[in-house]
Amino acid sequence: MGTLRDLQYALQEKIEELRQRDALIDELELELDQKDELIQKLQNELDKYRSVIRPATQQAQKQSASTLQGEPRTKRQAISAEPTAFDIQDLSHVTLPFYPKSPQSKDLIKEAILDNDFMKNLELSQIQEIVDCMYPVEYGKDSCIIKEGDVGSLVYVMEDGKVEVTKEGVKLCTMGPGKVFGELAILYNCTRTATVKTLVNVKLWAIDRQCFQTIMMRTGLIKHTEYMEFLKSVPTFQSLPEEILSKLADVLEETHYENGEYIIRQGARGDTFFIISKGKVNVTREDSPSEDPIFLRTLGKGDWFGEKALQGWSWTLSVLDVEL
Question: Where do Low complexity bias regions lie (predicted)?
């Protein structure tokens, strides 16, 4: 009997050990899911800002290499047609081209950009400027719009027609209206990765790299300047060093809410810290589902909430524009 009890005890220990291992596996899987979610979020942000940061870095590297070789400054400036000014005053005086379009064409271009994996994370203000700056282009049947290996400087949105996309002679797909193509050449300053030929007469909208990069840098610098001024106007942040404020401005994301919308719901998981830039919000607490929420206070410009979200490893900083 003693041997049987020993076996039963050992079996119970093993069962408990397996239960603890299962619980640990569940916990690790949950942590892995959370980290996968963070990686995806960071990847989206990387795609969003790489279009500005990478070309600027490459240009700076070119200029640095030329300086080491003793090349005259005037010759270095002629290397690239991309905008090289990074001062907000200089960029604010740049006049971008404007091409009139029908409301249908504007909507088509906007929806095409929002449907594109590499451009959908742009700010709406940037998308609007891109829409305004795109100009019309037409190609006849059997024309080559993009040739694999060439240096590209244009991105297209198709309004009418159909094209065939091939890589190394192998057909990849056909595309119709409402599609973006050629975007990699202006986002990452690389050669064309595929060939695009027309199957019928096509009508396109196009924008060149110089115009695109000017929009990216100007809107980015304007937003950064606006956020810096806003943060400096918040009493709590006024004592922070300039470099800290600059880093906060870099990670701020502007979010808009209509009157009556919920921003945070009691009991929900929070991962965002909010600062109000415009409008007012009411803070309430619900002690019982059967009772009306209790009003606590009203917050306005410069106030913040959701600060507990900063205690975790996954969080977002957001600046609010609340409609009254």
Answer: 57-69
